[in-house]
Amino acid sequence: MIREWTSFFVAVFSLIYIYELSLFASGAKDSALALMRNPGIIAFNIVALLFTVYHALTWFYLIGKVIPIKMGKTTSKPWQALLVNIVLLLTISYAVIQILVLR
Amino acid sequence: MPKVARLHAILWGVFSTGGFIAALLLPILIYLVGIAYPLGLWPVSSGDPTSAILNHHHIGTLFLFVTVAGSLYHGIYRFQSTLTELGLAPAKRALEASGYLIIIIGILAVAYYLLLLNPGVLSLP
Q1: B12-122 has which fold?
Q2: CA of B28: how far to CAs of A43, A71, A99, B63, B125, in Å?
Q3: Distance separating alpha carbons of residues B29 and B53, to the nearest angstrom
Q4: Residue B44 burial (CB < 10 Å; 0-12/13-18/19+)?
Q5: Complex ipTM, two decimals?
Q6: Cα–chain center distance at A60
Q7: Domain ranges within chain A, ordered by starting residue
Q8: How far separated are the first and last CA of chain B, in Å rounded?
Q9: Of the candidates A24, B31, B46, B119, which lies 20 to 30 Å from A1 by C-alpha distance?
Q10: pTM of the model
Q11: B21 at the A interface (CB within 8 A)?
């Protein structure tokens, strides 16, 4: 059931961020940034991040279970899909930081 | 395949893609804009990450659109079906209708605001 509730945090964060983009677009950048510095929003974001990471890990495991890959005589195990996708998650996150934030 | 079943398969496929987007791209967005920026953590030392991402016109805008639109679709789609599993099955049609309404308005809004913030994004890089 926890897995299902991760969708709540995914959806609410998306809606909050759309609202932030609307403030950016209307020129109210300071209001948008003040919203993100609100302690309640920060607390929500920390919980949302935990739930989103939980969603990611269970999703990767589930994919490995539902769509196992055949390699010769062996078939991939769910934990292998989990491992490969964790590496992918870390690589993409690092690339986003390097390309979109630090450059 | 009947039309309804085909539509359901397409919607489920988009949901699945949204699940991957939420799993691979959303954690870093939440960390950057929702935690690292307000708490002054690495790698956000100065300035806000949304502006930094939008400065990379095409790839930054594409990243924000795919992440927010995909996550919104996945989150709302799953949440409305969770509510029906929790005993709101009689209101299934209404939940589905309001869910899709939020998804459509949300995705259009993301596209609109990103276009306002980066008007040149539709031109070739």
Answers
A1: 3 helical TM bundles of succinate and fumarate reductases (1.20.1300)
A2: 16, 32, 13, 11, 25
A3: 10
A4: buried
A5: 0.95
A6: 12
A7: 2-102
A8: 41
A9: B31
A10: 0.93
A11: no
- With vertex at residue A28, the alpha carbon angle to CA B53 and CA B58, rounded to the nearest 5 degrees, is 25
> What's the pLDDT tens digit per position in B24-68?
999 999 999 999 999 999 998 778 999 999 988 789 999 999 999
- Smallest CA-to-CA distance from B26 within A63, A21, A13, A41 is with A13
Distance from A49 to chain B by nearest Cα, in Å? 6
Choose among A97, A10, A89: nearest CA to B103: A10
Structure tokens at A58: 């269970």
Going by C-alpha positions, the residue among B105, B60, B100, B21 that lies closest to residue A15 is B105
The CATH architecture annotation of domain A2-102 reads Up-down Bundle (1.20)
Chain A residue closest in CA terms to B119: A25
Map residue B124 onto helix, strand or coil.
coil
Contact A101 B53 (CB under 8 A): yes
How are the residues of chain B apportioned to helix, strand and coil, as percentages rounded to the nearest 5? 85, 0, 15
